[in-house]
Protein 1
Amino acid sequence: MAITEQEPLQTLQSGLGTNGFAVVPGIFTSQEVAAMIREIERADSLKETFRKSAGLFAIRQFLKEIPAIHRLIFNARLKQLITQLLGSRYFVVKSIYFDKPAASNWFVSYHQDLTISVDQRIEVPGFGPWTMKQHQFAVQPPVSFLENIFTLRIHLDDTNAANGALSVVPGSHRKGIYRPEHIDWAVEKEHTCCVPEGGVMIMKPLLLHSSERTRNGRSRRVIHIEFSDRELPNGLKWVERLPVL
């Protein structure tokens, strides 16, 4: 659902609880977006946390790799949104930058975000399976941890169905682990999340979501940040734990 600045916080919270997502326009001005893009373009793209191909440019541990962008992202409007929506106890646990170029044929089928990034592999009951992505440990935690996470997607371009906006299955985040092959399209509905430049999409990682190929020759640049207020057990640590305020 789209939320305007005039609509109350309760509407936003209700949409997140019921649908698993909400769109909030106007968090960043065009000038603030341009400043973020300049910082990204200055970054050293030869590092191992950078991934470059014809169809995708991505930066893992984005806030660590480009620390100067932190003050641009966490402006007064975003900090107020986070504080009012999540409270003051939430902190960053993952950040990624995606650039889906204008000529990209990159398609992502329906899935849930089921893994978290940690600093080392420690066998803990309930955590697994493990994977490694660009020298970074990822593990699937218990569902209770995933239910506690919020994802914030900052859009640096106008995004719609023609340049890879997310399609989601509203309410699917309330069904635990929901395998895409089990989606009953006679019951479920699909929604395309159009987000204007400078707007944000807030979503739950258990929300089923997909992304189509770019068809209109325009980029889709997104800063993806995940938040939690829970520490990990038995020596596990978030690889990218950073404060918001």
Protein 2
Amino acid sequence: MPGVILVVTTYVLLVVFLVGFVARTVRLARLPVHLRWELAPIPHEKGKGHYGGSYLEELDWWTKPREKSLVAELRYMLLEIVFLKAVFEHNRRLWWFSFPFHFGLYVLVAVAAVVLLAAAGAAVGWGAAAPAVRAGVTGAAGLGYALGAIGALGLLVKRALEPGLRDFTSPAARFNLVLLLTVFGTGIGAVATADYATSLPGYLGAVLTANLAVTVPPIVAAHVLVTCVFLAYLPFTTMMHFVAKYFTYHEVRWNDEPMMPGSRMEKEVERLLAQPVTWAGPHLHADGKKNWVDIATEEVGK
């Protein structure tokens, strides 16, 4: 593929990714306040999270300062994000493929950051990366692609053969795994058959400097293209759960801020309760004019 086509295609697909990613993230951030369930334990509760307690145990809790532990919260996040602790505890058979799949992605994200820095450095005249760095990048990339491929292939097989997964696996979920398997497969080919640690930073440097005359090995070009297609596709899929998970934890499961008079949360809840209700359930007597407060305070059977 000519360099001009590959570079321009990269620009277009990256713009689609950035616009879609930002738009989807903003939409998630603007969702209404969640229904408070007062879940416990919450890792950041200092002195209580480890045994399942909460500040609600305290007499007159609203008059007392609340202590939080950032260390405990970060420790929980590390175990969940890196090692998939919840999957390990509740679905061990799935974990054996889900863990290498996700860990491979984490390794590749780290490799991408290093390669991008190397490309940026070369673009401003800092010189090529040391041989030891290039060897490390190649080895880490190979490990990431191999782990990702093992995980993706294993998840595909499990979703195809196990009734408990097959019945709930959508065609889109299968396509996502196939696309990622293609990314990993072309990456393995690039590492095995091309000077990966030189050609990939060189190509990214061409993207940064708009060098349309760049040439790269065909397997690296194929890997770049399929990776960019994946990135452009990502914001419009359920794979955005890695962003949604932040809000799931910090704004739903772990949001234990009390609703105080005059607070932002109180104003948001009042705004939501004032919305008209159009649910079709006859027990609600919703006519599109009554709001949630009207329905909640209406006499039963009226």
